[in-house]
Design brief:
3-stranded antiparallel β-sheet; alpha+beta; about 180 residues
Length: about 180
Amino acid sequence: MDKQLLTEERFEIDRLTILDCSKLRFYKDEANFISLDYNGESYFNVRLTRLIPFYSKTTYISVAYDNADNEFCEIGVIRDMAELSEEQYKMIDEYLEYKYYMPEITKVYSIKDNSRGFIFVDMMTTSGRKTVCVRDWYSNFRMLSEKLLYCVDVDGNKYFCPDIETLDKKSMQVLEIFV
């Protein structure tokens, strides 16, 4: 057997680097991307990701960038944004609120299946009434817990209902077959 096939590739997936918030300096560069100076290093166009987005908006925020070879590299994790200065907190919070904008579903009027893998959901959200097209409803219109409904439409827009039991009876009847 070829020795190259036996070479084991290792990834550092079991290591969590918690960043020291007192040493973080986020700023917007000339292109208006968020960049970072940390421990004497500069990182341009960093990506911020909520690691537990449905349960916490301000804790466990991954900070990453693409290196010169266009490979994903995580710098570390902000344990709690409350440890950031007021200015830094505001910048990161605005970025994350924009990135994770998800209207809340408050009522479901109808769901129509076109028998071609798409469903059309007519619903009221905190951003108004919408009819959205969902491809592969099994993957994109689903319960993430006993009560949390998550929906992604064909354009990548995301919607959620934190507790379907708070919806009215008609909405629950419409949802019954799909959740």
